[in-house]
């Protein structure tokens, strides 16, 4: 495990961008799974500026690692956010974007195996220790890419309600996520987090026991695990 602690959110975002660019600027096909959410917002702003100054990196294929469908809309929550934050502003062609959704999830793992696996996966961490769509109470470390039912946890409806903008009619019966087993097969796992509110879970995930109660604790076992934090998120670690 390599832990990088930067002074603040801005510097953490720059460092994470540089880690991704180090993968992207290779003279070979590169396969990256990337995250949506609030943490990467500044990183994507920086990355968009970088992409505008460079020739299109046609060697890079992008993947989402989870998806919550929204009614009959073409794009689910994750891809819609990635398009808004990065794909569209950076001019990423659709043929370089490989969407995981509830319709094609059964082919997803086979496709990744066929292309040689993910070179890196960029993930965040929830305050409960979840990553991707792997929540405590509904996740086993051996889980692969799968559908997760709204019935799987008593509070799952409320969780998904917040993700689809508060419209109860748009809450799906299932969402899809890569499982711990698939994510652990990536050649590099990059986890980043910022803010004091993440400090407690960062300590548990990185320095506590490896347990399904804290799904992200499994990355302690990954041979190439990089963590990028700001000082607030790292404030409870034993360093």
Description:
With 239 residues, the protein is α/β, with parallel strands linked by helices. It has a single domain (2-225), classed as Rossmann fold (3-Layer(aba) Sandwich), CATH 3.40.50.1360. It has 7 helices and 10 strands. It has helices at residues 9-24, 41-53, 77-90, 105-114, 156-163, 180-183, 199-207, and strands at residues 2-6, 30-33, 60-63, 66-67, 97-98, 120-123, 146-149, 174-177, 189-193, 225-230. The strands form 2 sheets. It has a 7-stranded parallel beta sheet, with helices on one face. α1 (9-24) packs across α2. The two termini are 13 Å apart.
Number of strands: 10
- The tally of structural domains comes to 1
Uncertain segments? none
The helix content, as a percent range, equals 25-40%
By helix and strand content, what is the structural category? Answer: alpha/beta
Q: Averaging pLDDT over every residue, what do you get?
A: 93
The CATH topology assignment is: Rossmann fold
What percentage of the residues does DSSP assign to strands (E)? 15-25%
